Amino acid sequence: MKHCTLYVSIQQHQKVIDAISEAFRDKSVEVSADGRTVTVIDKKWFSKSTVTFTFMREENDSEAFLQMKQGMYGFFAQIETRHEKVKQKLLLQITALNVAVGIAASKEIDEELFRRIITVAGEVLGIVFLPSGDMLDKQGSLILNTSGESELDDFMLNVSVDLIDRHVRTSESGEGRKARSINQLQEQGIPAIAHLPVIVGDEEAVIRTKEEIVQRAIALCLIAVYAGGIAENGNVQEEREFIEEIIEQYGAASFFTEKEKMLLADPAPNQTDAVQMVWMYECYWVLLWALGYKEELEFPGQICDVGMAVDALRSAGDYDTFYQHAVVRSKAEILDQADLIYRYDWACVNARINGRTVEGGLNDEVVLERHRALNWLVNYMEDKWDDVRTDT
After folding, report:
1. Architecture of the structural domain at 3-162
2. CA-wise closest residue to 374 among 392, 356, 359, 347
3. In the chain, pLDDT over 90 holds for what percent of residues?
4. According to the lineage, what is the superkingdom (predicted)?
5. Could you give the angle at which helices 271-278 and 210-233 cross, rounded to 10 degrees?
6. Could you give the C-alpha distances from 150 to 134, 154, 157, 226, in angstroms and in order?
7. Is 52 helix (H, G, I), strand (E, B) or coil?
8. Antiparallel, parallel or unpaired: β 48-57 and 99-105
């Protein structure tokens, strides 16, 4: 192994440079003028070796950094493991990272060099990713690998206080909404924690446009109908011919995401992928409410009324009618539901990682899909539909 990567959640990246300098204080350490590269040089009589630390910071290249984090999140999210609690905490840690340090050595990383790298990780409370797919903690212990193995019973999150929810500024509207949501959860017998942050407030929230919501609603309904047909009878050709007619009827060919287009084009869709798309009825249900086609968004304890959901679109008959009859709810109403589902989802995740049944009658799968739809509606992290996160 000649390379690995150190990931950190830290406000002042200079602290990482200082930790490297200290760990290699008996070597020659050169820091580039822009602070993006630190080179450690070990000169001996007949040989010379180098270790280069290359910095990537979220504040300098937010889009590339987000893509990197999403890739890492997806990599570990798909691993099956009996260490579910550790996995969930690792995934949460990944969402909080803001500095990545690529470490490349001119020679194989031996035991001594590896020990120094772990020393740096320990100083800045970082995690280390190896080419093998192993993720190590600040002491060099295995957090999780591709086989789902771990050396830990628990994993302590390390997030700079200055970075916690830095994308959301505390506001009067946000705090008031949080208080109302917590009160509602308590009345429903659902666990809630006071230190779960606020979501974006009315002052800064940007809700998706009517056109965006209408087009996404149509796409979700149609992809769910198509996936449901495949899951039920397995006749892909028949279902494709049927859905293509409806797509043309609503002029919806351009409304689908890349993942949805892949399912529509696949001659032999995976049954698991099809079943997952059937869950999009729950997301569509939320958008129907946001467009005024439903009077209220009921408690997420059971799956939606699929027949009613499909009829809302079918009875319109075409795009223009569906669009004209839609009235987007107020920003405050949508944010109220976004905050509430955020706290419902925390209760579901907390129950799952602690091996307990979800309290209060919540259906965790319904909650997850509603969370996805509401986060998209409020432009959470400005993610596109395929990349929408449901952080808790």
Report:
1. 2-Layer Sandwich (3.30)
2. 392
3. 69
4. Bacteria
5. 130
6. 9, 9, 16, 40
7. strand
8. antiparallel
Q: Where are the beta strands (DSSP E) in the chain?
A: 3-8, 28-31, 37-43, 48-57, 99-105, 127-129, 135-136, 142-144
C-alpha 54/C-alpha 383 separation (Å) is 27
Residue span(s) of the chain under CATH 3.30.310 come to 3-162
Residue 165 identity (one-letter amino acid): D
- pLDDT per residue, tens digit, the chain (392 aa), is 999 999 999 878 899 999 999 999 999 999 999 989 999 999 876 678 999 999 999 888 888 888 898 889 889 988 999 998 899 889 888 988 999 999 999 999 999 999 999 999 999 999 999 999 999 999 999 999 999 999 998 888 776 644 444 445 567 888 999 999 999 999 999 999 887 788 888 888 899 999 999 999 999 999 999 999 998 887 889 999 999 999 999 999 999 999 999 999 999 888 888 899 999 999 999 999 999 999 999 999 999 999 999 999 999 999 999 999 999 999 999 999 999 999 999 899 888 877 888 889 999 999 999 999 999 999 987 788 998 888 77
Q: Is the distance from CB of 377 to CB of 290 less than 8 angstroms?
A: yes
Mean pLDDT of the chain: 91
Dihedral pair phi/psi, residue 242, rounded to 5°: -65, -50
| DSSP β-bridge partners for residue 102 | 5, 54
CA 301, CA 46: separation in Å to the nearest integer? 71
**For residue 252, what is the DSSP state?**
-
The closest of 260, 265, 278 to 219, measured between CA atoms, is 260
CA angle 371, 376, 379 (to 5 degrees): 125
Q: Which residue type is seen at 312? A: A
∠ CA 286-287-292, nearest 5°, is: 100
Inter-residue long-range contacts of 184-187, CB under 8 Å, 24+ positions, other chains counted: 184/340, 185/340, 185/343, 185/344, 185/347, 185/360
β partners of residue 100: 7, 56
Measured distance CA(37)–CA(56) in Å, rounded: 9
Q: Which amino acid is at 155?
A: F
**Token pair for residue 267?**
């001659």
| Identity of the amino acid at 119 | T
Say if strands 99-105 and 127-129 run parallel, antiparallel, or are unpaired: unpaired
